[in-house]
Amino acid sequence: MTDFLFKRMTLIGIGLLGSSISLAARQKGLVEHIAVHTRSSETLARAEELGLGDSYHSDLGESVEGSDFVIVCTPVGVCEAVAKSIAPHLAKGAIISDVGSVKGSVIQQMQPHLPDYVEFVPGHPIAGTEQSGPDAGFAELFVNRWCILTPPKGTDPAAVDRVEEFWTALGSNVERMDAHHHDNVLAITSHLPHLIAYNIVGTASDLEIVTNSEVIKYSAGGFRDFTRIAASDPTMWRDVFLHNKEAALEMLGRFTEDLTALQRAIRWGDGDALFDLFSRTRSIRRSIIDAGQEIEASDFGRHLKEGETHAAKLASDDHEHTGS
Amino acid sequence: MTDFLFKRMTLIGIGLLGSSISLAARQKGLVEHIAVHTRSSETLARAEELGLGDSYHSDLGESVEGSDFVIVCTPVGVCEAVAKSIAPHLAKGAIISDVGSVKGSVIQQMQPHLPDYVEFVPGHPIAGTEQSGPDAGFAELFVNRWCILTPPKGTDPAAVDRVEEFWTALGSNVERMDAHHHDNVLAITSHLPHLIAYNIVGTASDLEIVTNSEVIKYSAGGFRDFTRIAASDPTMWRDVFLHNKEAALEMLGRFTEDLTALQRAIRWGDGDALFDLFSRTRSIRRSIIDAGQEIEASDFGRHLKEGETHAAKLASDDHEHTGS
Asked: Could you give the domains of chain A?
């Protein structure tokens, strides 16, 4: 008998998410054995140096053998290939999950290949930083962040409960949702923000009348805020847009429509239209802080007023975990 | 004889910028007397409670009488009215400056009304937070931030030097620039970022298929980064767009053009185009950190890895002030 939630967990991919899961699961004593697979032998060696696993596998099939929990932590574009490769090696009753930022496509890619005797519980922790790779991980990444599970119809509820228990133990609040709705929610809260951040950084780089060094020098006027998410992993984000096309295009269409209205307001000097929008966007930040999803300190805590305590303190420290 | 840089400084407007200048100038012992004017009697009373001045004036003309340094810290839309009102009351040899985010329009609005016997040195400290009002100010706001001066042709160089000395004493690095170029630089580094941040927050609020509470709940996926600058002062920003129309529309046009190309890449599944952009935007953040204009810690220091020191530590702490 053991207190472990899972006996053997395989992490396929050991970037920011995979390494953070490893560190957090180890810290909380949730799994007995962590098996690590990644395609790159260099990254695998680095994971071993960092002690992120108990065993290290360059062979995908071998990595999942005997595991009761498998989490795919790769860019979403390779999910189908991963599912095909691991399928014949999966243990009976194993739970297969992932951390992909899109869920409809992941289900479409993976489900047809998985055997009937495993349970598939797709997941998405809404957590990350602009860093990537196995060195970027840290155990606290998921604390007080939401993790969304999108189990397809017919998934054993007991398997979903166990995955929920896992994420709750890592500090997350867990929500269950339809995959299609997830993809719409994330298109506006995450995918579109990344797209326009990437885009404005690109636009700024390409200007002839303003030099790159001027953009860098005077970035404190607002631009620098966008560069954070525009520094995110390119492969991961390419795959997000290729695999959440419909929702991304829908949100982008609405954004552009609204931006065109603003452009018109500027051109025609319609101060009231500008003021109206600029006023109603203020309260949403307060709500995000109150919901424990943003730090309280102004300017992301970059500046501290005299006597102010630690800027990076999460507003959420004052909140109870609400866990669903 | 005195060591003060100015004998009597008038601050017209006592919001985030005005109050920060007051606190910083006092801390550094730069001025003997600070006269405060603001239109709202409530704000004036609050400024007095906070001890932001040595005298408080509801009458604009009176506030500048006998001052050798006047800084207009109002939204840029009222600069012309301010210039008209103060002109007859200005002392011979007084230096008139401002902190407006656009410079061409401020010069156009103010210069024709100012008497020949004063010196006009428009300025723009690239510093701020999403907070506003007299309570928002703090003395360290300008430390290691750039301040751009755009003196019109014919301004006495000695007056420009004194204003530079003032900002340098507040901790800023000072740059001189043509007003037109300033307006282009700020259109991309500050005005466009604010516009698209306001816009995406508006777009998200208006969705029918995703609720506001979902947007708030899952904002850690990227959206929350945009809400900071979308919480900035609405009057100030309305005026910026009304008064830097040409440059704002030019940058917005380029942004939209680039975004349309991205939209097309998503629609047609052109992963290479997406990957190319997403790769080349990464290095610019590193450059901003290296230039001391952004904090080093990942995720704006919202998360701290174990053993990491204070997240809000400015990367710039490691850099010498370079001051021009």
From this structure: 6-177 (3.40.50.720), 181-280 (1.10.3660.10)
